[in-house]
Amino acid sequence: xSSSFTDHSSYVICEMSSGPNPLWATGTAERPIxxxxxxxxxxxxRTAARGYDFRTLHxxxxxxxxxxxADSLPARIDRVLKSGEQQTDQQLQVFIPFDAARLxxxxxxxxxxDLRLRLDCELLFDELVDxxxxxxxxxxxxxxxxxxxxxxxxxxTINLSRSDWVDRVLPQTGYGQIHLFxxxxxxxxxxxxxxxxxxxxxxxxxxxKNGHYNGTxxxxxxALDSVLTARGExxxxxxxxxxxxxxxxxxxxxxxxxxxxxxxxxxxxxxPGNEIAHQHRNFDQFESQMILMLTTTLLAYxxxxxxxxxx
Length: 311
Hints:
Layout: E1 2-6, E2 12-27, E3 32-43, E4 50-63, E5 70-71, E6 75-82, E7 86-97, H1 100-110, E8 115-136, E9 139-160, H2 162-169, H3 192-209, H4 213-225, E10 230-236, E11 239-245, H5 249-254, H6 256-279, H7 285-304
Antiparallel strand pairs: 1-2, 2-3, 3-7, 4-5, 4-6, 4-8, 8-9, 10-11
Helix pairs in contact: 3-4, 3-7, 4-6, 4-7, 6-7
């Protein structure tokens, strides 16, 4: 995509275009930054003895032509061109600070499809007048006087395929990942059932990253089903119904009180997956994130819990 900027006489002074991979991410999960890369063609004014001082470019970002969601930092150009001059390969990087809430809004609007961002841009430049020359280091150097400040408007759209956004850009922001601080390495080799559970959790994380939130909850249910292998009973709506529970063998590992607490917690998390199967409920991004985080935390705790006896 490309965009043009004109001066007060409608003369095109700048053409901005994006390449095949115009967008990537830097920063941290707490403060992600999207970086857009552009190539500029800059032109000096048509009037003799004049110059343009191209200063900065600033963009307001809107996903899918909706309201503005972010502002870029001013990108410095710092290029002076006199009448008749042209710069054809000026490279420019535009840094756009984001946060988790804004990325979640983009994901909500994207609806698991391709990404589309519209950038409404302002180009700041000064018109200069050549008022003479001085000799410096053995050559004549023009003296410029400021005539007027100007702002030119332009608009450019960045289109990114779903695979590029999900696989190449979004992971660099830390969005959609579950962070468990100071969590020890889980000894899956000691508990075969949890190996199945954590394989399902890995699939759940992929589902969440791709915006398939119901799929995330279903994968979490599969992870829980791999450890809730026994059957118990509970009174639901006044009737006794079978429910999945932890095997009695977990009591030897965890002890009675911890077993009861973990069994109740895992059983409560298992119910949202049943809601999808039986009530056709749709989960949103926040619910998906919370269920994935809690399931991961509880299963990791189960794997790391002190062993009271042998299973």
